[in-house]
Amino acid sequence: MSRLLGGTLERVCKAVLLLCLLHFLVAVILYFDVYAQHLAFFSRFSARGPARALHPAASSSSSSSSSNCSRPNATASSSGLPEVPSARPGPTAPMLPPCPDSPPGLVGRLLIEFTSPMPLERVQRENPGVLMGGRYTPPDCTPAQTVAVIIPFRHREHHLRYWLHYLHPILRRQRLRYGVYVINQHGEDTFNRAKLLNVGFLEALKEDAAYDCFIFSDVDLVPMDDRNLYRCGDQPRHFAIAMDKFGFRLPYAGYFGGVSGLSKAQFLRINGFPNEYWGWGGEDDDIFNRISLTGMKISRPDIRIGRYRMIKHDRDKHNEPNPQRFTKIQNTKLTMKRDGIGSVRYQVLEVSRQPLFTNITVDIGRPPSWPPRG
Q1: Residue 313 among the catalytic residues
Q2: What is any Pfam family matched here (predicted)?
Q3: What is the three-class DSSP state of 41?
């Protein structure tokens, strides 16, 4: 009896031992299987690179101009990559695709009229996405350029309301990242359009060094087609090539007036615009000469797209035709190096950020009693 009981106990012990061994083997197999899965996961993670996973815009050369892709005040670690904040890191903004070259929401030919009343409150309601100071950034894509629209100005509030009414929707449909700057000449001395444009270039860059395209527009000109894209290209751009006051034709081959655009590099290459054209006329021809003398050519849209309507008005007081403009135009080659963005002198009196534009009032001096020749 005792022998039978001992044999049974021995078999039970062997069975328990085998069961424990089997349990151990299963545990070992499961351990190595889970380890292999974790190793594969971390291998894929490290292959993508930690900086790209945490900061999608860190590898982009244009991250400094895309405020929604990276933190503007992020500090750099010893590896050259932005450090991740240890406390409350916050969500990473998604990378937006580039804005299309041909924006899909363009309308084409527009009906432009200046008879309906145009209060600023209405224009503001029509453009809820435009920020204080007249700044706008598309919410669904990243533009290739940052555009400053510069308007020389004095006593044209009525015209400005129409300009804002039409241009803000056009520029938004064109998927531009832009700001609007009204450069208001203080006082009642002779008007100087080109000098005000130089001031606008400098003051816009003071506010945002990312501006790399500058559109210079008279306040009384509205495009009749939103396919006339307010962008800068490889050559200086003339937009207003077919105004209604000229019968929708280019008045002459060298005409560069009304609305034009230059990149920052192109503007600096010609030393900006001349400062010595006091009164009406001549400065746009001088600018055309500067572009030609530096080896660049004028780019223009199709004449069916570059059509503009002008708000009819009497000639401004203290903006009489400049009697010396023809002499000055003939001497652009001699004057362009000494007269331009490098020699402009002015005083900023007030900077006022309005809901639809930034108004900069400046004192640009007065014309000399005896203007220098050439």
Answers
A1: yes
A2: Glyco_transf_7C
A3: helix
Torsional class of 281: left (φ above 0), alpha (ψ -120 to 50), beta (otherwise): left
pTM of the full structure = 0.73
Closest CA to 179 of 362, 357, 359, 348: 357
pLDDT at residue 219, as a whole number: 97
| Known catalytic membership, residue 218 | yes
Catalytic residue chosen out of the listed positions 118, 224, 243, 310: 310
Q: Which amino acid is at 313?
A: H
310 catalytic per annotation = yes
Query: Hey, what domains does the chain have and what are their CATH numbers?
Result: 133-363 (3.90.550.10)
CA 236 to CA 266: how far, in whole Å?
Answer: 7
In 3D, which of 298, 158, 146, 159 has the Cα closest to residue 236? Answer: 298
Catalytic residue, from 52, 122, 249, 313: name it.
313
Whether the CB-CB separation of 346 and 195 falls below 8 Å is answered with yes
pLDDT of residue 97: 96
Catalytic, 189? Answer no
Where do we find the tokens 């930690």?
A: 50
Residue 132: active-site member: no
Distance between CA atoms of residues 178 and 325, nearest Å: 33
Report residue 262: phi and psi, to 5°: -135, 145
Q: How many CB atoms lie within 10 A of CB 138?
A: 18
Active-site entry in 218, 226, 276, 339: 218
What pLDDT, in 10s, does the model give residues 30-83?
Answer: 555 544 444 443 343 343 333 333 233 333 333 333 333 333 333 333 333 333
**Catalytic residue list contains 140:** no
pLDDT number for residue 87: 42
Return the beta strands (E) in 224-283 as ranges: 237-238, 242-243, 259-263
